[in-house]
Amino acid sequence: MPPNVDDFPTDFLSHEADFVENKMAINNCISDILRNGGMCIVNLVLVVLVMTKNNSFFCRVVHAVSNASQIAQANVVEAQRCMKLMTVEMRGRAPHLKKNMQTKINLYRDELQGLIRDLERAQLMAREENTMSSTANQKSQYERLIKNNDRLTKSSKKLEDTHRIVAETKEVGITVLNTLAQQRESLLGTHEKVRETGAMTTEARRILQRMTRRIITNTLVLYTIIFVLIAAICYVLYVDFIRATR
Fold it and tell me: What's 1-133+146-176's CATH class?
């Protein structure tokens, strides 16, 4: 018949209870790792679909997986310590009790080895899923970088076009200024010619005025001479004919 629980030493039962508690904690940690790994897959899908710019959710999931792995490793170490203490409690016990205690320890060792394998598989799956999520995140960042680079290229092209338009406008402005300068020189030359023409016209007017005065003077002198000659002729006729007749 199997031995009664009361037949086992109290310390053995205490270590056994601690082992069972650590075993349950390891199992819970494995579940947390697998669940958070599934959340990583969901985050991967969200990253691919909406190209999210905020990856804080992904970081929290990775942190949760890391914490669960650390807690599980600590529980594994504690469970192994409990098994060692249970093995120590076997010393000096009755053969039949020692055999039953060894059977329990072997059973717990197999269970712990199975949990360790499950933990390693869960950690491996979580790492693979995290790698996939990280790759998708890097891909989204690369695509955003490409888009930003395209926008910068377009902005640079627009800026170059603006510089080219400004340069062309500057050249047109310089050409217009040169044309205006030439027209100004032409206007100044024309103004100088007008001044010279005005001076020549004034001089011609003065000459014409002098000539007019001379013509008037000569005309008056001529009329005076004619008048004097007529008077002289009349006097001569008067003297020669009229006085002679008397």
Answer: mainly alpha
